[in-house]
Fold:
Amino acid sequence: MWKEAVFHRPEGPYAHPAGPRELRVRLRAKRGDLFSCHLFHGDRYGGEEEGDILRLEKAGSDELFDWFEGVIPSATRRLRYVFYLEGEEGGLWYGEKGFAADRREAGAFQYPYICEGDLYRVPDWAKDGVVYQIFPDRFFNGDEGNDPEGTDPWSAAARPRPDSFYGGDLRGIIEKLPYLEALGVNVLYLTPIFLSPSNHKYDTTDYYRVDPAFGDAETLKELVRLAHQRGIRVLLDAVFNHAGYGFFAFQDVLQRGEDSPYADWFFIEDFPVVTTPRPNYETFANGVWTMPKLNTAHPEVRAYLLDVAEYWTREAEIDGWRLDVANEVDHRFWRAFRDRVKEVNPEALIVGEIWHDAGPWLQGDQFDSVMNYLFRDAVLDFFAAGRIGADRFDALLTRTRMLYPEQAHFAMFNLLGSHDTERFLTTCGGRLERMRLAVLFQMTYPGMPMIYYGDEVGMCGGPDPDCRRPMMWEEERQNRELLAHYRKLIALRKELRPLRRGDFRTWLVDPLRNLYGFVRWDGESCVGVLFNNSPHEHRVEVDLHPFGGAEKLRDALSGKTIDAAGRSRMPWTLPPYQGAILTPVE
Ligand code: ARE
Ligand code: CA
Structure:
């Protein structure tokens, strides 16, 4: 046994409450090294030995490791446990004191108490969410009367400059709600809408004012109300890492210098404050002078921003927040933010913008989930660029899943692209078959699929600002087949519960032919999804065990059925760049 590779700690992704009286436990070991992994557990105040036994299942693997996982109940919420690991040379105990042949010598891991206050509660609706991201200036112009000066004519063929305006607004979103409903999405995420001089509005002048180019507070309320009537929720963008140059407090510092009561709201190096040759204050990224960084540890700043969050959550009855540059703001601030927002609306969703490992923010006390850029990286490498094989793809997905507590997964924003990245179809080099297969994956994987406006009709675009072209509304220019593909997959996700709420297990990994597959099941039914990410037709032998004796399987995409009675494996032919969604037929 490779003891060096074995790892567990009674915290974070390795041990977290699955509910008020349940603990999810994970153990990592060298890939292929353990035959089995059992967990002996009991009450911490109980007798000598932990009397209950659970066999942990292999939840996934990457190139180096296997992860074993299981959920143990605890009537008293006070847990003590020790692992029994079996490998080629026999069994060993693994506990708080390390490895031992003798159980008591290994010691027991302690999970002292499953505290009510530490439970990771993510709104249940998130599991059924399909998100649509809107960059308001570019979605639809519903009111030409509010267009900013110098607004360019609407054209999906336009090449936006960093400072272009196209006149999109909240009225435009309201008018397009029927389109969004027909597409099947049920969550909108809007990039910032508060007063700001830019088209993206990440440099806030006034957090309490909807930018007049987009509408006003009434338009926002109307949008939320009408969206709700259609079963669509609305999330806004909280830009609290930095304010804009025009923010009243920063303006005061510019005018009064050191004497300004707001001097400590920012990180000013010396006075007077200047923007050239370089800003002498901290900003977003490297010297973006229009975005002075806010000191969120300052009690007044904190109070100010928390009031803003509470105000809009309450006033506009929004359904949550996406948090800009979330990983550069202190954890204490986000904990307070969560408490405030959830107090007003316990069903609000909080999604951080973090492009990398977001473990520290996903423990239940800060965010519900994050924009899942690690998911995007993997999908991009496998489907769009064809840079990695099915084995590496599976490894990347597993690693990402194992970084976080279970609760976060079903609420992830699984994106193929955003207003900050090149568009997915462009990354695919325009090869639609690749995009279609990636979308099949996105719509069947655990977590909320997030569609960046326009991707569904085949829009292209390079990095910011080119990825922000005005929405292509002319039907004759839209890719209607791609749109139909999106609609069909969203409808299937709604129809097949396991795709939204089911557990995930890898089903097929064939790096030589570049085939991939997984199953999802929710305790009642099972769905198997297959992908042929290659230019050749392939025949696969599908393992039927997950379907537990189903007589017939049907592919929800092609409608094809196949007889499975009495078999443990079944041949299935996958055309180039095609997939299948297999479900048992009653
Ligand atoms: C403008 C220009 C850009 C230029 C940039 C730099 O348009 O072409 O590169 O300035 O000066 C907003 C606007 C942008 C604008 C920016 C600055 O939307 O158009 O860019 O303000 O004025 C990192 C952060 C992440 C951040 C991205 C952009 O971690 O938080 O960079 N994303 C949010 C929003 C943006 C927004 C801001 C932050 C600022 O979503 O839209 O920009 O409020 C790697 C790194 C990541 C990095 C990522 C992208 O993967 O690991 O940390 O994200 O690349 O660069
Ligand atoms: Ca307008």
